[in-house]
Write a structure and sequence with these properties.
This protein is an alpha+beta fold. The chain contains five helices and seven strands.
C-alpha cells in the first residue's frame, strides 16, 4: 500500500480535481457504464461540487511525490450525489445530525492508485469528519464501480435509481447506508 496524505480541498485545486475525476471515471468505470453514459456523466453528475469545497468538507489526497491521487468527502447538506452541472435539482438545505445521515460524496481515485487503500483512506477521513460534527449515520449514492468497496466497509444497499446525465442517458446509482461506529468502540 502506498503512502498518501490528505488535506481539505481549496478552489485552487479545482482544475486538478476535474482532471482526476475524468481519469478516474474513464479508467475505472468503463466496465460498468457505456461510453455514452460516461460522457454524459462527466458533463453533469461527475463534476466538481463547489459547495463541498466551500463548506470545507472535501479532501484531496496526494502521493509521496505530491501528485494528486484521489479526492472525496462528505456533506452536511441534502444533495446525495452529483456536482455543479447535474441535471437533477441540488438540495442545499442543511441536515440535522440528530435525525439525518451525513452524505458521503464524490470519491474518485486515479486508476494509477486503484486498489492501494486510497479509496478506503478517503472514506475513513470523510466518515471521521462527519462523526466529529455529530452525525451517527452515513448515506451515499455510489456508482456501480464503488459498491464492492463500500459493502466491505459496512455499507448496505437500500435502493437503486437512474440518474439522468443528459443526451437521453441515465446511469444507475446505488443508494447505500451505514451506521457510524460507536465513538468508544473504534472504527467498525
Amino acid at each position: 500500500m502506498g503512502k498518501f496524505y490528505l488535506r481539505v480541498a481549496t478552489t485552487e485545486d479545482v482544475p486538478e480535481i476535474r482532471e482526476l475525476i475524468d481519469g478516474s471515471v474513464r479508467g475505472l468505470q468503463a466496465g460498468d457504464y457505456s461510453a455514452a453514459q460516461i460522457e454524459g456523466a462527466l458533463a453533469t453528475v461527475f463534476t466538481v461540487d463547489s459547495r463541498l469545497i466551500a463548506d470545507g468538507t472535501y479532501f484531496v489526497a496526494f502521493d509521496e511525490g505530491g501528485e494528486l491521487a484521489g479526492c472525496g468527502g462528505w456533506s452536511f447538506r441534502k444533495t446525495l450525489y452529483g456536482g455543479d452541472h447535474q441535471i437533477e435539482k441540488i438540495a442545499p438545505e442543511r441536515l440535522d445530525p440528530a435525525v439525518d445521515a451525513a452524505k458521503i460524496r464524490a470519491i474518485f481515485v486515479h486508476p494509477r492508485y486503484a486498489r492501494m487503500g486510497l479509496g478506503s483512506l478517503i472514506l475513513a477521513a470523510a466518515e471521521d469528519a462527519a462523526v466529529e460534527q455529530g452525525f451517527t449515520r452515513f448515506e451515499m449514492g455510489s456508482t456501480l464501480t464503488g459498491v464492492t468497496l463500500y459493502t466491505l466497509k459496512g455499507y448496505r444497499e437500500v435502493s437503486r435509481v437512474l440518474a439522468p446525465v443528459g443526451g437521453g442517458e441515465t446511469i444507475e446509482v446505488v443508494r447505500m447506508v451505514k451506521e457510524a461506529p460507536l465513538l468508544n468502540g473504534g472504527r467498525g
